[in-house]
Amino acid sequence: DPDCAEQASPPDLELLHDPEDELLCAELLDLVRATLGKAPLGARRCSRLLMPAQLAAQVRTELLRLACSEPCGLRGALLDLCVEHGKACHDVGHIAVDPAVVPTFQLTLVLRLDCRLWPKIQGLFSSGPAFTPGFSQSLKLSTGFRVIKKKLYSSEQLLIEEC
Description:
The protein is α/β, with parallel strands linked by helices. Helix content is about 25%, strand content about 35%. Strands 1, 2, 3, 4, 5, 6 and 7 form a seven-stranded mixed β-sheet that branches.
């Protein structure tokens, strides 16, 4: 009945979330933090990228929202991690959320460095002189990010979410 359809409200996104996905997302964010903790951001140099709690919460919400329409949920995701610096985007890692599941979609999470740190890191992404072995520097990420979703089983266009 068309009149009934107009009165029905859209389903609450919280109701669509799978409790397994909630747990899996927490584990995924731990893996993302670990990957960021040893990010290769330049020639022979590693930096520890710090993910603020607010950023982690926003990423968690976005990942769960993008996964809820997928046949395998978050388990079917491939996650590419990138850090944006100016016009350049540096690849810092790739994660198969559940290696036992054939991936159904690919997410590219593009994180940004906190722009207030720019004067401190100007040489970070260049291939300058080598540093002492084991040198590490902590850098904080901004709370802004972008997620690009690509369905691997469909010819649909890319979905780009700016947060």
